[in-house]
């Protein structure tokens, strides 16, 4: 899907051709306009004599044009309704299943004796929820490359994966496995909630499946064929007859050609817009980004499954109450440091922060106000895309005493990748990928510097440092731009290497994030490939 900005004057979209249907409409309107000019110059007098008794032709043509415009607008409205319903249902599915996953983790007991069983349940549920969402999208998406990322399926038995491949409805199969997992976990008394509360998770899971069925309706039931066929016939007829009618109604050849071009372009553009957005699950520029939607869902699951996320943070109520009183008492935020707090208490000059004393505030509160400054406002920044690393990558980095967000030498990152990658990957290829990511990072910094963004330029060549998270981000960015053949990779050598090694870059980023490709079906793969996919 194309993301765009209108610009200051709202006209920036006029300069974009990618995803536009106007060029397709021009294929029809320009020949029609040229034909109109040709007939007007060569045969206008002859045609006027031939149609001299056809009075009321302009009224009949106006009525036909009105009916055609009404039908095209109705078709466009129906296509937009189908498009927006698809967007709404896709986000509802993600919201319902993310909420169910979060609720199930919140329902788990905190008992230490069940810690191992809870960890097993969390990892098991994580590796079932990801393929559930993946197969739901795969049922409605029409992709040339049918691979969609899922969280690594390591741990599932080969027989289970083979049975899932052969299942006629994989989404329903995974849903049943999740429901059975919840029931078995409840029998083990691993949930700390009453059964009616636990049923909410079942309800959210089932609501997501209902929305999947609604998506299937949009994909499986196209716009009625007779309506679409007759609309195409009316457009072609309008394209043929327009030059003949306009030549008689307009005496100037330039106005005749311009009028036909304008009307024909408008009708054909609306017609192609309706066709473009009628089925939003494909690989056109204006279709929904199915692969990115699955990636964001995987990141949400892995973030919620992280121990730092599902553990309740510490909270000191006494400190909160005292600071709340301070904020209510002071007119402005009191920001005193340890160096000037004593001076403020001894000599309350008129320039000090003015304090409004309410009847409800006691002298004790005022003493606390001088000792404890009011709570500072916490700035809330827009949410940024965060790359969630997989457990294996975090474990390898932890063994080397390396923080995933701490910049380290590229040589250390290369050693981490050598340990993570399977034996089939050569060390030379892994080293070249790290160098490629470093070069891409350098170009990004140079672009920021040229745009007058106040950033500190990193060092060059062998002294360059990257964090493991930054490396993963660069690899995913390079793979995404290579897959889209993006012109954003302006450096020629970097663009050529990214296009040649796009699949390897994507596989390496999936190795770091703990995701994998969607398992292919038994019918789609050879026996050797099926066994390899089952083992993974």
UniProtKB/TrEMBL annotation:
Keywords from the UniProt entry: Ion transport, Membrane, Transmembrane, Transmembrane helix, Transport
GO-annotated cellular components: membrane
Origin superkingdom: Eukaryota
MF terms (GO), sorted A to Z: chloride channel activity
Biased composition (Polar residues): 523-536
Disordered, as annotated region: 516-536
Keyword Membrane among UniProt keywords: yes
Transmembrane portions of the chain: 21-43, 55-74, 230-250
Pfam families, sorted: Bestrophin_2
Name of this chain's protein: Uncharacterized protein
InterPro entries: YneE/VCCN1/2-like
Keyword Transmembrane helix: yes
Subcellular location per the Swiss-Prot or TrEMBL entry: Membrane
Recorded topology in the membrane: Multi-pass membrane protein
